[in-house]
Write a structure and sequence with these properties.
single chain, mainly alpha, 4 helices
C-alpha cells in the first residue's frame, strides 16, 4: 500500500486516525497500525520493523535509567 493510493488515502488513513483519537492506548495503536501498514507492503521485512522498535524501546529505557546529564545518558 503506497501513500498515494486511494486505498491508503480514503481507507487506511481516515480509519487509522479516527481510531487513534478514540483509543486510549495511543502508543499501542500507533505500533499496531504501523506494523499492519508495513506488513501490507512487504511482510517478509516485518521482522526489521519489530527489531528496530524493540531496540529503540530498550535504548529509551537505558536513557531514562541513566542519571541526568551523565556520560551514560549522553552515550545512550
Amino acid at each position: 500500500m503506497l501513500f498515494s493510493t486511494p486505498l491508503f488515502l480514503f481507507g487506511f488513513f481516515p480509519l487509522f486516525f479516527t481510531l487513534y483519537w478514540l483509543v486510549p492506548a495511543r502508543t499501542v495503536w500507533l505500533l499496531l497500525g504501523s506494523l499492519f501498514f508495513y506488513a501490507w507492503g512487504e511482510p517478509e521485512f516485518l521482522w526489521v520493523v519489530l527489531a528496530a522498535s524493540l531496540l529503540d524501546w530498550r535504548i529509551g529505557q537505558q536513557i531514562v535509567r541513566a542519571p541526568a546529564q551523565s556520560r551514560a545518558a549522553r552515550g545512550w
